[in-house]
Structures are given as structure tokens and as C-alpha cells.
Design brief:
This protein is an alpha+beta fold. It has two domains: 7-59, Thrombin, subunit H; 63-157, Up-down Bundle (Methane Monooxygenase Hydroxylase, Chain G, domain 1). 50% of the residues lie in helices and 21% in strands. Strand 2 (14-26) and strand 3 (29-37) form a beta hairpin. Helix 3 (84-97) runs parallel beside helix 5 and helix 5 crosses helix 6. The model has no long low-confidence stretch (mean pLDDT 92).
Length: 158
């Protein structure tokens, strides 16, 4: 079970730190919620304590694991699907897993595609979301700024 101070990743939203646990009554039902403070946009998210596993919440990876991930991006294989709709769904499924390797793979695949052909509006938004997810985890774990995290990603992906 998670506790205040834990750094966790919320799939499709990014990493944040649990800053408190609150009890809220919603639709006549009282439940406990983790308050997750996100480093990007200074946003706070309420996560029902009882459903964190079902949502796919996970601990952030370590600083060493981030270094390994960034160094392995070059070796990641990107499956290029010609059909836009299928490619979009496959990438969206990868992002929903919450797995940091899947997120990095989506970033690499979309950046490679953008170099050859321009991305659609949907894929451009997906790239932005994927970069935000990875950036937030790097920021929290390495205790660096968003610009520094972006530079780290760009150094290894582009």
C-alpha cells in the first residue's frame, strides 16, 4: 500500500507525489483518496485508495533505471504500422499500460515518424502526452527541472 511521500506513476497522466490522504463523500459514499501532486502544471489529482491497483498505479523507477532506460532507447525496436488508425490504437494501448519502457517506445516511434512524415494532429497530441508522462517521472526521480528532463529525453531519443 502506498503512503504519503511515495512517488508514483498514474498511467496516461504521469508521475506525482502522494501528499495526503483525505476522506471525501461523493454521491453519498465516503471513501479515502490519495492526493497526488503532479510536478507538471502544479495539478493535484484524487485517486481512490481502494482502486489504485486496478488503475495501474505503480512506484516510480529509480534514477539508475532511468539512466538504463534512456541509454536503451536506441536499441528499442519500433514497429511501424502503415495504417494510421491501427498505429494510433497500438500506441495508445502502450501508453495505458503505464510501463515506462512502453512510453519511451511511443516517444521514439512518433519522433521517428515525424522525421520521415509529419504527424497527424492526434499523433502530435499523443507525442506530447507521452513526453509529459516520461518527463514527469524523470523530474521527480532525478529532482531536476522540466527543461532538464526534456533535454535528457531529447539527447537520447533524437
Amino acid at each position: 500500500m502506498y503512503k504519503i511521500g511515495d512517488k508514483v506513476v498514474y498511467p496516461m497522466h504521469g508521475a506525482g507525489e502522494i501528499v495526503e490522504v483525505v476522506e471525501k463523500e461523493i454521491l453519498g459514499s465516503k471513501k479515502d483518496y490519495f492526493v497526488l501532486k503532479m510536478p507538471i502544471g502544479d495539478m493535484k489529482v484524487l485517486l481512490p485508495v481502494e482502486t489504485v491497483d486496478a488503475i495501474g498505479i505503480r512506484q516510480t523507477i529509480s534514477s539508475e533505471e532511468i539512466d538504463q532506460l534512456l541509454n536503451s532507447i536506441d536499441d528499442m525496436e519500433c514497429i511501424e504500422n502503415i495504417n494510421w488508425n491501427k498505429r494510433y490504437r497500438e500506441n495508445m494501448d502502450r501508453l495505458r499500460t503505464g510501463c515506462v519502457e512502453d512510453v519511451a517506445n511511443v516517444i521514439k516511434a512518433l519522433l521517428l515518424r515525424d522525421q520521415g512524415k509529419s504527424l497527424s494532429t492526434g499523433e502530435r497530441k499523443m507525442l506530447s502526452t507521452a513526453k509529459q508522462i516520461l518527463t514527469s517521472e524523470i523530474m521527480l526521480v532525478k529532482k531536476i527541472t522540466m527543461d532538464e528532463a526534456d533535454q535528457l529525453i531529447n539527447k537520447h531519443v533524437i
